[in-house]
Predict the 3D structure of the following.
Amino acid sequence: MSSSGSSFHSRLLSLAVALLALATVVGVQAADLPSAQVFNFADVEGISEHGVTVSTGEYRGRKALRMVQPARGDGFALLPGVNFQDGIVEADMAIEIVTPLFPGAPGFGGIAFRARDDVSGYEMFYLRPGNATSPDQAKRNHSIQYVAEPGFSWPLLRRAWPAVYEAYSPLEVGAWTHLKIEVTGRDAKIFINDAPQPGLIVQGMKGEDLTGHIALWGFPGQTTWFSNLRITHAKPAAVRNGGEAAGEWRAKAVTDAVPMDGTLKLTREGENLRGRWSGTFGNDLSVKGRWRNGYVEIEFEGIFPANPATGPAGPAAVTLAGWIDGNALNGRVRVANLAEGTIALVKAP
């Protein structure tokens, strides 16, 4: 081979190596090379502060990002150069309570994902480590929390869907805790301290945005520490917002009390849904609800069937919620004080 040909191939190889390195840095998905972004927090360059102050420091023998929040209200630190849809976010976090805002404050800290530029919208898992050691079982069950803003704060989710969006996990105030969040389409899981099973699973996340920033969250009266944060991007799941609710749907549900099936006929005017339900709980029942960019919440009242576990037939207030993807809707169903489970709807041709 001539020297000029050798030089050309050498330059070509160097270019290929450079492009591969660039793909890894900027988060381009390669076929056999999942892109990753690593934050060791050697400095705070590029981090956007929203109601918080960040700096570098040392906590329990390791260098880390130090985040404090001077006033009540949401405060976030947005990481630079991240556009996240699906994949894994993992980090170590520690919550050092300094001057608690109220007696028995359990500490609060977590990671938001798919966050907007101004953090007005996001999905988030967060921890309340002090609750994990409470003698009150109800508080223990509030150790891990999922929320989504706007519109799905912890009080709303707790009252509307008890025990679905929070759970217990063995946590300790002040200790380093490893969080791993797996996001696929509309579902997410959080694993604590390398546990083989998730501490909390969310099917049908509530947030409307499918991509966005990664943001760190803490609380006033404490110092929240983060280290070893790694983002591994995955091929996005095939989900799309804006699914149409109008039409006829066939529904089947699995609950902890009774099976449920029926036909749901819906019309939509803007965000308002109207229709009729026929099946379990009665026929030709009036339905109302709301639609938001493909997410639906529907309510109706009927008669709960007699059941050896729940007693004689009686009034039933039914709520179902979920996202429409194509001709299918997967979500949750709740019969107030009587049943809880998952539901799947398929649109009639």
User: Anything to note?
Assistant: The first strand starts at residue 36 and ends at 39.
